[in-house]
Amino acid sequence: MIGSRFMGKAHSNAWLCVNRFFEQLPRQAVMHTVCARDERETTAFARRWGWTHATIDPRCAIEDPEVDLVDICTPNDAHEDFALAALENGKHIACEKPLANTLDAARTMRDAAKKARRKNVQTSVWFNYRRCPAVALAHRLVADGRLGTIYHIRAQYLQDWGGPKTPMSWRFDRARAGSGAHGDLNAHIVDMA
Questions:
Q1: How far is the C-alpha of 68 from the C-alpha of 65, rounded, in Å?
Q2: The pTM is what?
Q3: pLDDT in tens, the chain (193 residues)
Q4: How far is CA 154 from CA 138, 150, 179, 183, in A?
Q5: How large is the angle between the packed helices 6-21 and 39-49, nearest 10 degrees?
Q6: N or C: which end of the chain has fewer CB within 10 A?
Q7: Rg of the chain's alpha carbons, rounded to an integer?
Q8: DSSP-derived secondary structure letter, 2
Q9: Separation CA 153–CA 138 (nearest Å)
């Protein structure tokens, strides 16, 4: 996994619990390597969350033959480089959303994923809400026609990233965040719709 901040914690928790929730999974998740910028913090993060190895060099995760999947949960501007490197090394990818900061970058990633798919490499973008029971039920009700024809959807996504006591983060840096709240929060609403 590359990235150890908020989403790194959320993903680590998911990897720890995935086989408990989904008992029929054909594989057991193994938390091999976590990579982030600060060596001391990354080592402490690995110990806390159960990662076997900690590194500040993403190549250690991307190029290690024991690593099958690279989970990318970094700020948005880093997704493309890490994803392309992982695909070049034949790694499956789970990438945080938004996929990229620009349409051109997303297309480059898409094309690399299509090429890698020919070698049975799988890719995905994390849209965690589609698996929430209430969202899955709503989707099933719509798909089964039990709610009639849907003409309008109204949604709100409340998040406290911009609270008055919240420290400044990369999410407010346009170069790193890209499309801002539209890509970061509205992407979930569009995916659920």
A1: 7
A2: 0.83
A3: 999 999 999 999 999 999 998 889 998 999 999 999 999 999 999 999 999 999 999 999 899 999 999 999 999 899 999 999 999 999 999 999 888 989 999 999 999 999 999 999 999 998 888 888 898 999 999 999 999 999 998 888 777 767 778 777 776 666 766 676 666 777 888 888 7
A4: 14, 11, 21, 17
A5: 20
A6: C
A7: 18
A8: B
A9: 12
Look up residue 8 and give its amino acid: G
DSSP 3-state of 94: strand
Domains of the chain plus CATH, in order, are 6-126 (3.40.50.720), 132-192 (no CATH)
Residue 29, CA atoms < 13 Å, CB-side half-sphere: 22
Which residues does 140 contact at the CB level (< 8 Å), separation at least 6?
A: none
- Phi then psi for residue 42, to 5 deg, are -70, -40
